[in-house]
Amino acid sequence: MSRLPGWLSRLGTGVARAGERLEERRARAEDAEDSAPEPVAVKVSKSADGDEVSADNGNGTVPAPPAYAPAIAPRPDPVAAVPWSVRVAAEAGWRFLVLAGTLWVLMRVISSVQLVVFAFVAALLITALLQPTVARLMRLGLPRGLATAVTFIAGFVIMGLVGWFVVWQVMENLDDLSNQVQRGIDELQKWLLDSPFHVTGDEIKDISKSLRDAVGTNTEEITSAGLAGVTVMVEILTGILLAMFSTLFLLYDGKRIWRWTLKLVPAAARPGVAGAGPRAWRTLTAYVRGTVIVALIDAIFIGIGIYFLDVPMAVPLAVFIFLFAFIPLVGAVVSGALAVVVALVTQGVFTALMALLVVLAVQQIEGHVLQPFILGRAVRVHPLAVVLSVAAGGLVAGIGGAVVAVPLVAVTNTVVGYLRTHAQENALQQAAAATQEPAARTAEDSP
């Protein structure tokens, strides 16, 4: 009995210690529950085979699939899925569409005011031709207004006299030319009958009858074209008056007009445009003056050649050669062919061959000697660019477009080249400034 109280004492001590340990475990469990995330309720459904399949109820993430489920690759970003070449083509494509639409709208606007545009472009070309004369007269001491008036009057009087001379020569020699053409056609018929081509007289008569029938059938169209020519003459006179007034103001006040135009350009692009403008004007001036000199040389030497070959209307033909020379490549071919055809129907095959030799010789000298020497590298345009620009200009705006196409390409080439150089210089200057700025700060911070 004496040992019983000690046993009870030890038992009570063990129970007390077990209670303390139980309390500690309960406290740790409560702390773990407070720090753990809230449990996610998952909806459990059964498949057709009876297996339990878990699904997200919209309040949490979907649990990981079981190990036996097939692996599903994640879908890539749509931008990364498109190939780089396709993205570049799409970026360039929509920009090209915007440019094409802008160009189409611009061409529609120009076509609606085509007469005004052609008159102003002609005024620019005439001003580029006459401006050096105004500057020379001013250096001699004449006031700007008087120098402009003298140059303007003299230039348009000379151009008017040239036009009157061509019309007068054609009207004076028209009867003689028609008689010579008839004799030439008769000689050509005889030559075809005696030629090895085995052409019979009946075939020649059939060709002549077809030509007469074609002319008779189209008499009404020819008459309507003659009536429409009155409207064309009115438009031509209106264009000439607009070109004259535009030339007068460009000669007298061209620099002020250019400064006003610069104000319409955005400020960021204004320095580049201000530098490109004078260079474009020098290119246009050099092109017009060089073309006039080359055309004059062609007209003089071809005119002298066909004059000594006794080709009728040699002087009007020389003037036509001068005028057609303003259409590069195509104009020379057309005017030379016209001279050869006139020589053929009036003087025969031998004279036509000699005229062809004269035309080819002069044009070869022009293409390989005169144009590189007179025009220089500033306005040199590749022959392929010349042909394509003349063809495009002719399709868009007829003869006027063919005349304007090449100087427009030359000026555009000069402007684009200068703007590219200007942009490169600005980039180099900015890079140099960015390099020098840290060096200056380091020098200022050093003791």
TrEMBL record:
The chain crosses the membrane at residues 146-167, 227-252, 286-308, 314-334, 341-365, 385-411. One of its GO terms (cellular component) is plasma membrane. It is a multi-pass membrane protein. Coiled coil: none annotated. The keyword Lipoprotein does not apply. GO terms for biological process: transmembrane transport. It comes from Streptomyces mesophilus. Belongs to the autoinducer-2 exporter (AI-2E) (TC 2.A.86) family. InterPro entries: AI-2E-like (IPR002549). The lineage of its organism: Bacteria, Bacillati, Actinomycetota, Actinomycetes, Kitasatosporales. Residues 19-60 are annotated as: Disordered. Pfam families: AI-2E_transport. The keyword Manganese does not apply. Keywords: Cell membrane, Membrane, Transmembrane, Transmembrane helix, Transport. This is AI-2E family transporter.
